[in-house]
Amino acid sequence: MDATQAPLPFPRILALFAKEPRAGAKTRLAAACSANRAADIAEAFLFDLLDRFATVADERFVVFTPKDAEGYFRKIAGDRYRILLQTNGDLGARMATFIEDRLQLRQARIVIIGTDSPTLPTAMIGQAFNELETADVVLGPAMDGGYYLLGCTRRLPPIFRGIAWGGPTVLGDTIARLSDPAWRVALLPPWYDVDTPDNWQMLRGHLLALRRAGVDPGAPHTESLLSSPLP
User: Fold this and answer.
1) 110 is a domain residue
2) Using CA atoms, how far apart are residues 138 and 86, in angstroms rounded to an integer?
3) 3-class state of residue 50 by DSSP
4) For each successive 10 residues of the chain (231 residues), what is the average pLDDT?
5) Which of 20, 23, 128, 206 lies at a CB distance of 3.0 to 4.6 Å from 35, suitable for a disulfide?
6) Which DSSP letter does residue 79 get?
7) Is residue 99 part of a domain?
8) Of 180, 117, 178, 176, whose CA–CA distance to 149 is shortest?
9) What is the pLDDT of residue 56?
10) 106-138, pLDDT tens digit by residue?
């Protein structure tokens, strides 16, 4: 390589952490409709996200659970994503294992998302990878007090233990563990998860507003469910 040429940035790895959308998924939504309806919604979110991010990053993973869902995820991932079974433990432990395993192989920029934000713009994934060129950790704050995206590079940050996952203090607790200025932290714009009936109504309004403004939301599977009410 020419001595004047800048080194290539670390490769970009995108991981979608997903649970098979079977009856019993998205319990807070299911309480307002039915277990099967909530599973259909979860599957629509999953399909839309898989399609949207199918060309993002240098490597893409679907990190799935439960173990017996391998065939399901292999079928829907196709050749667009590698599939990998989530390890044991809480969400923090599972994310930490995935990150550690990737960083043991090589230095990389790693971004993890879930399946609760079906309208998450592709640009935010790109921004997260760009931030990781200079930051150690990047977070995408969710409006429920958690985060919709986590990214890191070079080393495992101390943010995966002692967190009440799924609660409203996740983001605050995470930031508290990054108080050492040696950790360079970047922040993305806030976005929303869809876990409750109120979230569903917000999503519905957002999709309708985008259509009215002449913008394709890029979520056809989710849009197909809007014609019938949640209950």
Assistant:
1) yes
2) 22
3) helix
4) 55 97 86 89 97 97 97 97 96 97 94 97 97 96 96 96 92 96 97 94 95 96 87 64
5) 23
6) T
7) yes
8) 117
9) 94
10) 899 999 999 999 999 999 999 999 999 999 999
Q: What is the pTM of this model?
A: 0.94
CATH of the domain at 36: 3.90.550.10
Locus of tokens 């996952």: 165
Distance between CA atoms of 168 and 144, rounded to whole angstroms? 6
Q: Within a domain: residue 163?
A: yes
Residue 53 in any domain: the answer is yes
The HSE-up count of residue 124 (CA atoms within 13 Å, CB side) is: 24
β-partners of residue 191 are 142
Closest by Cα among 26, 52, 23 to 199: 26
Q: At CB < 8 A and 24+ separation, what contacts does 21-30 make?
A: 21/45, 21/46, 22/69, 26/195, 28/195, 28/196, 28/197, 29/194, 29/195, 29/196, 29/197, 29/200, 29/230
Q: What is the DSSP letter of 142?
A: B
Based on the structure, what is the number of domains in the chain? 1
Q: Say which DSSP state 67 is in.
A: G
Res 62: pLDDT? 98
